[in-house]
């Protein structure tokens, strides 16, 4: 008798709920052996939720998932562990790390910790995290050999992503799921990464990848399109590439009423400065590693700068000096807001003058915080609502929510509103103090094309209305607002 050929994985009429929300309703999908799928769709369409459903994280209230690859693997392998199940053969690499400290007690690292060498020592090295001393061939394309002795907390965004994927590959999963793996990677690393995914597929793993239509490795054979939790299409790769690109409708822009902005800004007029940032021959090193070398840079009021460079070029370290997060500022010739660093001002004096937006900030807010609390935390620069905002502060936060037209989300949990609204909440959080300097560190990371365009235009409109200095970091130069007209590019810790 000929053996029946089974699919690799089947989702059979599944209805999925999470908290009080239906994520998918009677969804059907089948992956055959040797098929490699990409899932694509606008932000909020359900890509991440679908990966988490396959991983078994959400409640399926109707239908079911059949893990045929697991049944097949059990037939071919002896398993003695009574707790072994399909999850042991799946690896998911998501947006955010879940690194634990050395005593294995917490995943909660605080944002400044990566720049404080004593505190960072409580985080494991890459070698300890991966539990390997030599880099096996399987993960060599990820170029993690130079990172092996680095502390996890000190890795850049792109380096963190590479280490998380290495950890997943070392499990030798039957199914490797990657959630937006290109986020935060520079141009060269994106190319290397595509080559690596092609190599993983050649080595026999099945890959399932949530990504954009523009970033699809050539070994992907099929594409699933989603919108609002429903499947809108199942295509072979050749069918999908012939489709017209979806027309990106613009999200409605806030009116940005000049009068309202002027009224808020007048409540807190910042002091005027001759120079916002001045660096002379800046040098930062950890042990033998020189991270920044001979940086000379001056930022004047109202200038709009792009800070560019590959992953690990030194951008985050440079920002940490300006943000007051890096103790090596005291050993360098650095002036912030006309004052030499180390002349008696505290970190909080510096932070009062800076509005900061970065995707990493997402990681540090808990699911308990609502949008208004997140925005009010901008007054104290403390993440998490440790003390309630004053009535005046709450009024300013609400006024910015109105201007950015996100006031409907005031009481909603921050982690549950659409990604574009979360990013505008972080923008409002940066603006509440009316700071003389705004620092945007990859603020569009994780947004879809429509949301990136929207955020960029909102920033351009704000810069028209506010006398503000801007430092903007990105790997995608098309994301830069039109008002940016000055550029600092780093490579290997040096100015180029």
CA(first)-CA(last) distance: 68 Å
Total count of domains: 2
Please give the CATH class of the largest domain: Alpha Beta
Counting DSSP E segments of at least 2 residues, the number of strands comes to: 19
Instruction: Give the second-level CATH assignment, the architecture of the largest domain.
Output: 3-Layer(aba) Sandwich
* Main pleated sheet: 6 strands, mixed
Helix content: 25-40%
The CATH H-level homologous superfamily of the largest domain = P-loop containing nucleotide triphosphate hydrolases
Broad shape: globular
Question: How much is the average pLDDT?
Answer: 87
| Count of helical regions | 15
Domain ABC transporter: 9-253, 277-496
GO molecular function, one term: ATP binding
Keywords: ATP-binding, Nucleotide-binding
Protein name: ATP-binding cassette domain-containing protein
Word description of this protein:
With 496 residues, this protein is of the alpha/beta class. It has 2 domains: 9-242, P-loop containing nucleotide triphosphate hydrolases (Rossmann fold), CATH 3.40.50.300; 258-495, Rossmann fold (3-Layer(aba) Sandwich). It has helices at residues 47-54, 68-76, 117-120, 126-130, 157-170, 187-202, 237-242, 258-266, 315-322, 347-351, 359-364, 371-376, 391-403, 419-431, 449-465, and strands at residues 9-18, 21-31, 37-40, 59-66, 90-93, 175-179, 206-210, 222-227, 230-236, 277-286, 289-299, 304-309, 333-336, 339-340, 354-357, 437-441, 469-473, 486-491, 494-495. Helix 14 runs parallel beside helix 15. The chain is globular. The model is unreliable at 103-111 (pLDDT under 50).
């Amino acid at each position: 008798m000929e053996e029946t050929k089974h699919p690799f994985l089947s989702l059979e009429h599944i209805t999925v709920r999470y908290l009080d929300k239906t994520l998918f309703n009677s969804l059907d999908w089948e992956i055959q052996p040797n098929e490699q799928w990409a899932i694509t769709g606008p932000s909020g369409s359900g890509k991440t939720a679908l990966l988490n459903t396959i991983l078994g994280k959400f409640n399926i209230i109707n239908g079911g998932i059949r893990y045929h690859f697991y049944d097949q693997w059990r037939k071919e392998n002896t398993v003695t562990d009574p707790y072994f199940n399909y999850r042991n053969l799946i690896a998911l690499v998501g947006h955010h790390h879940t690194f634990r400290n050395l005593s294995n007690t917490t995943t909660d690292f605080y944002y400044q910790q990566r720049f404080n060498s004593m505190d960072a020592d409580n985080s494991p090295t890459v070698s300890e995290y991966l539990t390997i001393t030599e880099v096996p061939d399987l993960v060599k394309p990820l170029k993690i050999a130079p990172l092996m002795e680095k502390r996890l907390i000190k890795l850049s965004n792109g380096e963190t992503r590479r280490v998380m994927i290495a950890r997943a590959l070392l499990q030798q999963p039957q199914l490797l799921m990657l959630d937006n793996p290109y986020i935060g990677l520079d141009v060269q690393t994106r190319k290397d990464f595509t080559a690596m995914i092609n190599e993983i597929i050649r080595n026999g793993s099945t890959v399932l990848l949530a990504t954009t239509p523009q970033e699809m490795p050539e070994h992907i054979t099929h594409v699933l399109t989603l919108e609002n939790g429903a499947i809108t299409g199942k295509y072979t790769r050749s069918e999908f590439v012939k489709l017209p690109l979806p027309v990106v409708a613009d999200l409605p822009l806030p009116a940005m009423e000049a009068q309202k902005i002027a009224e808020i800004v007048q409540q807190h007029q910042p002091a005027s400065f001759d120079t916002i940032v001045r660096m002379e021959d800046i040098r930062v090193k950890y042990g033998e590693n020189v991270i920044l070398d001979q940086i000379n840079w001056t930022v004047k009021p109202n200038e709009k700068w792009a800070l560019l460079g590959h992953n690990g070029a030194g951008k985050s370290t440079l920002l940490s000096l300006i943000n007051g997060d890096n103790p090596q500022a005291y050993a360098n010739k650095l002036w912030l807001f006309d004052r030499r660093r180390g002349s008696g001002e505290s970190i909080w004096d510096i932070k009062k003058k800076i509005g900061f937006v970065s995707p990493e900030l997402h990681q540090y807010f808990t699911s308990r915080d609502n949008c208004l609390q997140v925005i009010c935390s901008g007054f104290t620069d403390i993440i998490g609502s440790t003390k309630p905002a004053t009535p005046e502060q709450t009024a300013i936060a609400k006024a910015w929510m109105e201007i950015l037209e996100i006031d409907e989300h005031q009481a909603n949990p921050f982690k549950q509103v659409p990604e574009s609204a979360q990013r505008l909440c972080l923008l409002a959080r940066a603006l509440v103090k009316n700071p003389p300097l705004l620092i945007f560190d990859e603020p569009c990371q994780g947004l879809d094309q429509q949301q990136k365009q929207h955020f960029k235009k909102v920033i351009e409109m704000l810069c028209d209305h506010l006398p503000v200095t801007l430092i903007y970091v990105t790997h995608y130069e098309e994301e830069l607002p039109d008002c940016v007209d000055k550029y600092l590019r780093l490579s290997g810790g040096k100015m180029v």
